[in-house]
Amino acid sequence: MKIGISCHHTYGGSGAVATELGKALAMKGHIVHFFSQAVPFRLGLYSKNIYCHEIAAMNYPLFESPYHSLALASKIAEVAYYEKLDVVHAHYAIPHAISAMLARQMLEEKCSEAECFRIVTTLHGTDITIVGADPSMSDAVRLAINKSDGVTAVSGYLRDETIRMFTPRKPVEVIHNFVDTSIFRRLPGSGSKELLGLEGGKVVIHISNFRPVKRIMDILPVFERIQREIPATLLLVGDGPDRSEAESWVRSNGLGFRVRFLGKLDDIVPLLSIADLMLMPSNVESFGLAALEAMACGVPVVVTDAGGFPEFIRQGVDGYRHAHGDIEGMSQSARSILENDEVWQRFSEAAVKQAGRFATARLVEQYEAFYRKLIDGARESKAQ
């Protein structure tokens, strides 16, 4: 198949999943064209089956923002026509699915609807729960969903939220996020500990974009309680609007020697390989890819009982789930894992095994089957 993938290039779960999906499809012999503002951060080395199209939009002084969505649509239409794409897979309803829809309309005079590419839209979360909830954008999101040929969501939670908010005219299929377990695995040695100057104790980690929904200000008091009884260091990976407040809290509570702000990092496997626990007390996670990647590296997780977390984190087996804001409960669960090496080993092994159920190969097969169903349906319609 010839597949176009439209996605964000920046640090985040949707861009990571879209890129890993494209790479896996290319490895299986499919031709993959990426459409993005810049090279996706997880793309790495190119292969003979991967092409990347960076979108350059004009600026016009009458408007505050450039015409990115229109430029994206034009590029998709151009590549789809000359390369005969079978599918354009939009990761996020806005702007990617809308741009794919416009691209197909641009090609109406050149090819029939049955001959044109199928549009698959994968909903990742904020396109529904934040953008879709905004009255100024809700109708645009509804249009993107209803004009797609097929729609998937990364969790059952997100599917249910989509149905509740938009009552779409077509079914929303759940295809969970996935992890490349050949890359996300616990590396031997302690090189990263030595580079960071960590001389002992446990390592607790959090990875996110530091937005309010991630509840960074819950992580810090949880960690403060952990380190009262267990020597530990907290690694905070990522950046965003809540970082300054977090840094101020750390300084005012005298924990500067225990907390490391590492910023945005592309290669997180070495850090996950020295971590003993991940904290993710988010308000909601449509899936929670960072937690799954941690589990694949043998890191138990303590999270909130929200969003997609219950769909892959088993209570008391590979981690713990708590209510929002349950600082004491999360602290106790974290200590119960960290203070006993045999308990930690049991949780770690269970986490790796559970992550294997969400390995790339299994989920990519589901996407392939989804594409083929839409392509075959279009061919049958043409034959009739």
CATH class type of the largest domain: Alpha Beta
Name the helicity range: 40-55%
Radius of gyration: 22 Å
Could you give the order of the helices and strands? EHEEHEHEHHEHEHEHEHEHEHEEHHH
Structural class category = alpha/beta
CATH superfamily of the largest domain: Glycogen Phosphorylase B
Helix count, DSSP H or I runs of 4 or more residues? 14
CATH architecture of the largest domain: 3-Layer(aba) Sandwich
Main sheet specs = 7 strands, parallel
How many domains make up the coordinates? 2
Question: What is shown here, in short?
Answer:
The protein is of the alpha/beta class and 384 residues long. The chain has 2 domains: 2-178 and 360-383, Rossmann fold, CATH 3.40.50; 191-356, Rossmann fold (3-Layer(aba) Sandwich).
Description:
By secondary structure, the chain is an alpha/beta fold. It has two domains: 2-178 and 360-383, Rossmann fold, CATH 3.40.50.2000; 191-356, Glycogen Phosphorylase B (Rossmann fold), CATH 3.40.50. It is built from 14 helices and 13 strands. The strands form two sheets. Strands 3-2-1-4-5-6-7 form a seven-stranded parallel β-sheet, with helices on both faces. The chain has a six-stranded parallel β-sheet with strand order 10-9-8-11-12-13, with helices on both faces. β6 (150-153), α6 and β7 form a beta-alpha-beta unit. It is elongated.
